[in-house]
Design a protein that fits this description.
The longest helix has 16 residues. This protein folds into 2 domains: 161 residues, Rossmann fold (3-Layer(aba) Sandwich); 139 residues, Rossmann fold, CATH 3.40.50.2020. Strand 2 and strand 3 form a beta hairpin. The chain is an alpha/beta fold. The radius of gyration is 20 Å and the shape is globular. This is ribose-phosphate diphosphokinase. One of its GO terms (molecular function) is ATP binding.
């Protein structure tokens, strides 16, 4: 009996079109064609303009808010399932709604779990994502999750800087595990920022645990939203005698006046990935592409090869 070879096809949600083109090029496949029809009230309908029957599909799309990004991914998953695709992998460079991963007060949702269930119900048979806000989100899925780390992208960049007296810093207590992993790889010291919030995105107080005198400090975080934490931490560290402060953040959400905060701050450089497209360029922001990482993992997944070499942390 002749074995059926499952073909890999790559499609993009509209918000990740540029990154998806880079991933497809690195993978060695053309990006599949999708047409989206939009009604006057804003409702939209994506349509695959080629057969996907029996294929392995990689649907690339970050689900950063607004809600239409997540909705587009869900609709494309459902369309692929109904078109008889054999395997449907949701490639989510940024997994949105991840900050709501637990009940931190009464009568609030656990949005990250809700999103996980919606993705599975819509038709995802596998998830590939990058630097989840919390590792335990993987447990919200019943399907396989390949959780990649941007350290494979950032560490070579840091090493080629050749900074002396390097210290890795976490902007909050929750990121200490990530900071320690980087410090171990770079054989550097670690400092931790302790912050208190008045409300979401508003810091009322920040203290520094550790010594940064004469150090070149690199703050490590999974995302930068309003940039309030990073810029405040940079100010505190420079006041405490740091030689320079940089930051690496995987996901550049950069909402509100984040760009202005960064450009007017004491941060020397903010290094991010292209998991979310920047709304504008900035002299202080350096973008490193995650396309090669995703293309390599997708290729190994399709050919049932190990991806363990992609996990540094």
């Amino acid at each position: 009996m002749t074995e059926i070879k499952t073909k890999a096809k790559i499609f993009a949600c509209s918000q990740s079109q540029i990154l998806a083109e880079k991933i497809a090029k690195a993978y060695g496949e053309d990006l599949g064609k999708v047409i989206t029809s939009t009604y006057s009230d804003g409702e939209f309908q994506p349509s695959f303009e080629e057969s996907v029957r029996g294929a392995r599909l990689f649907l690339i799309g970050s689900t950063n808010p607004g809600p239409e990004n997540l909705m587009e991914m869900l609709l494309m998953l459902d369309a692929a399932k109904r078109a008889s695709a054999r395997h449907i992998t949701a490639v989510m460079p940024y997994f949105g709604w991840a900050r709501q991963d637990r009940k931190d007060k009464p009568r609030v949702p656990i949005a990250a779990k809700l999103v996980a269930k919606m993705l599975e119900t819509a038709g995802a048979t596998r998830i590939i994502t990058l630097d989840l806000h919390a590792d335990q989100i993987q447990g919200f899925f019943e399907k396989p999750v390949d959780h990649l780390f941007a350290s494979t992208i950032f560490l070579p960049y840091i090493q080629q800087m050749g900074l002396d007296n390097l210290t890795i810093a976490s902007p909050d207590m929750g990121g200490s595990k990530r900071a320690y992993a980087y410090s171990k790889a770079l054989e550097s010291d670690v400092v931790i920022c302790y912050k208190q919030r008045a409300k979401a995105n508003v810091i009322s107080h920040m203290e520094l645990i550790g010594d940064v005198t004469g150090k070149n400090v690199i703050l490590v975080d999974d995302m930068v939203d309003t940039a309030g934490t990073l810029t405040k931490a940079a100010d505190v560290m420079m006041e405490k005698g740091a030689k320079s402060v940089r930051a690496i953040c995987t996901h550049p959400i950069l909402s509100g006046n984040a760009y202005e905060k960064i450009e007017n701050s004491q941060l020397e450089e903010l290094i991010v990935t292209d998991s979310i497209p920047l709304s504008r360029e900035s002299r202080k922001i350096t973008v490193l592409s995650c396309a090669e990482l995703f293309a390599s993992v997708m290729h190994n997944v399709h050919h049932n090869k190990s991806i363990s070499s992609k996990f540094i942390m």
